[in-house]
Amino acid sequence: MKIVIASDSFKGSLSAKEVGEAIARGIKKSSPSIETVNVPMADGGEGTVSAMVDATKGCFVEVEALDPLGRKATAVYGLLSDGETAVIEVASVIGLPLLSLEERDPDRTSTYGIGEMILDAMERGCKRFIIGLGGSSTNDGGVGMLKALGARFCDQKGNALEPRARELKNLRSIDLSGLDPRLFEASFRVACDVENTICGPQGASKIFGPQKGADDSLVLQLEEALKQYAAVLGETIGSNLFEIKGGGAAGGLGVAFHAVLGAELERGVEIVKDVIGLERHLEDAQLVITGEGRMDGQTVFGKTPHGVARSAKKYGLPVIGIAGGLGADADVLYGHGFDALFGIADAPMRLEESMGRSGELLEKAGRNIVQLIQMNLEVEK
Predict the structure, then answer these.
(1) Where does the UniProt annotation place the signal sequence (predicted)?
(2) Rounded Cα–Cα distance for residues 359 and 13 (Å)
(3) What is the spatial distance between Cα 178 and Cα 150, in angstroms, rounded to a whole number?
(4) What is the pLDDT of residue 134?
(5) What is the value of pTM for the model shown?
(6) Cα–Cα distance between 254 and 356 in angstroms, integer?
(7) CA 321 to CA 305: how far, in whole Å?
(8) How far is 38 from 5, CA to CA, in rounded Å?
(9) CA-CA distance, 381 to 379, in Å (whole number)?
(10) In this structure, are residues 138 and 229 in contact, taking their beta carbons and an 8 Å threshold?
């Protein structure tokens, strides 16, 4: 029997690789003859770099880049085993958690550090990029990133603007001729699990601005700034940027990647499944186990376990979901590819205790699953 374990991380506790290893230990304790294949997974958010590096036996790269407020910082990205693919989580250098509550101000933050990371990767020979857009602190439309890559943004007098949202209201022209020519030989796949446009009622500023520190007044200013930016950039490249689904992700960074760098905006879990090659492991499997820290009704909206379950069902495989906690509405998952769901807690306990014992509890869950399967086989005899 072959069991594929394709879980996301249990955030704050175990990486995706460690989750799979713990479940596999439990399975082997119950039945050493069972073959287990651990395929670390992610959905484009936190943990994507680690999962993809682990799954492809790549490596991590440290680089000095500017944080959201322009301070020197150390960021990390992944280099996959092919030596030509870089995986970058924007949150690693411009993430909201990098700023204190007092520092959070999307009028001042910049995506410049992302451009620096891309340049570093190109210097190392990378030609393919996978970008995770979740968790940013910015609302500059990707101006900072594009400036780092060689673009020029000017006011009416031709003066260069600083790469921050507050400057965009004065934007009158954009010169893309200075972009690093290696960008046009590279490909970009962007993990984007939202459909928000750059402007409008469901745009970057109005939906995400408040959580990044913007009050009502600043939200309106940011909205006008991005309108000006999208209009000027659209005129520059000859395209309407206001209707791009996902363009508002990461404070408009989605527009910059799509419109200027030619990126495809895709569901994160689909990118990860494709690059890691999940489905080739499923072809001769008999069971799939997936999971993440919490599973509930929201799991069906682009989360890793649902993406794994969809692939498993293409091969007619039963799917078991394991979570640190199951939401009250988790039963809806039975109609979306899951055959069984298990929470790992073996007694009433606080979240802190469950997180601290995740490895032990996952191992026990893996063992119990196999015991249940074996019992079922005996009953059927």
Answers:
(1) none
(2) 9
(3) 5
(4) 87
(5) 0.90
(6) 36
(7) 7
(8) 5
(9) 6
(10) no
Instruction: Map out the domains of the chain with their CATH numbers.
Output: 2-39+279-380 (3.40.50.10350), 48-268 (3.90.1510.10)
Q: Which two tokens stand for residue 43?
A: 């959905």
Q: Which amino acid is at 117?
A: M
* Residue 183 to residue 317: CA distance in whole angstroms: 41
| DSSP label at residue 160 | B
The tokens 């989360």 sit on which residue?
A: 303
- Element of type H or E holding 198: none
pLDDT category, 107, cuts 50, 70, 90?
very high
Report angle CA 180, 60, 117 to the nearest 5 degrees.
Answer: 25
What SS3 class is residue 218?
helix
CA distance 313 to 67: 42
**How are strands ordered across the β-sheet holding 2-5?**
35-38, 2-5, 287-295, 319-326, 340-343
Residues 6+ apart with CB under 8 A from 348: none
In which residue are the tokens 């186990």 written? 289
- State pLDDT tens for residues 236-286: 999 999 999 999 999 999 999 999 999 989 999 999 999 999 999 999 999
Contact 337, 309 (CB under 8 A): yes
Tokens 């293409």: give the residue: 314
Structure tokens at 33: 């003859």
